[in-house]
Amino acid sequence: MNTINETNFLFPKQKSVYKGKVREVYNINDELLVMIASDRLSAFDVVLPRQIPFKGQILNQIATKMMNDTADVVPNWLHATPDENVAIGHLCEPFKVEMVIRGYMSGHAAREYKAGKRVLCGVRMAEGMKENDKFPTPIITPSTKAENGDHDEDITREEILSKNVVSEEDYIILENYTRTLFQRGTEIAASRGLILVDTKYEFGKTKDGKIVLIDEIHTPDSSRYFYEEGYAVRQEKGETQKQLSKEFVRQWLIENDFQGKEGQQIPEMSDEKVIEISNRYIELYEQITGEKFIKANTENVLSRINENVVNFLNG
Question: What Rg, from alpha-carbon coordinates, does the chain have?
C-alpha cells in the first residue's frame, strides 16, 4: 500500500510551504491554505519512521466532518475538501497556543497527577482523584505551539497574558470557543456511545481579524475517547478504560522504553504492527463518525492529490 510520507508539490500561485509533524501546508497567493494530511505518525512530539496506511485520509475526513458539524456554533477556516487527504481553508495567522481541554483526568494530566502534581497549567486538581475520573467541570490546560521537532510545553493563562502571547480580549474568545466546541463534541460523542475525554483546538485570525477554528478537530490524534458502555463499572473496579485514541500507540512506545526523551531509541515497528495500527485507525473512524470507512485509491496517491488540488484551484 502506498503511503504519503512527504510531498513536494508546486501548485498554481503557490508562495510557500510549511511542513509540520503530520501535515504539510501550502500557501496559495496569501489567500488560501492547502493542508495535506500525510500518513506520518507522531507520538511524544516525535515523528516515527514508519507511515500508517490511510491515516491521513482518516484524520482529514474526521476533521472535515467535525468542522461541518460545529460550524453553527464556532466559525472555522474550512473552504473545500477536493481530495480525501486535502482540506483547503482561508489563510489565517495562527495563535501560538494550543487550547487543550480535559473533561477527565487522563493521559498527560494523569501522568502529572501520579507524579504528585496537583496544579496543571495553573488549574488546581482535587485530592483523592483516580486516573480517568471525571472533573467536576472541564479544565482548560493550554500548551505552547512548538516548532517542528520541539516539545509542546504546558503554560498557564496568566503566563499567556503576561507574556502577551495572546491579548486578554482574544484569549477570552479562545476560552469561550474551546468550551463551546467541547460541549458540542461531547454531544456528538454521546450519540455514538462514546465519551469525549479530552481534546485540543487551534485557532487563527483571518485577514479581516475574525477568530476561527483551524487545523484538525475531534480526531483520534487530537482527542481521547472512552466507550460510554461500561465506563462506570470499569472506573469503580479500577480497571483500564476501553478507549479510542492514539493512546494505544503511546502505550506501545512506553512498553518499549520510548517516551521521546533524549537518548531513547524509537522501537522498530514491524509490518504487522503498522497494519494493526492502520486497522485501529479505521475502527476509530467508523466509531467516531458512525460511517463505514471507504479506502481511497492509493495506487498513484501523489498524482491523485496533485490533480484534484490543481483542478480545484484552476476551477
Answer: 19
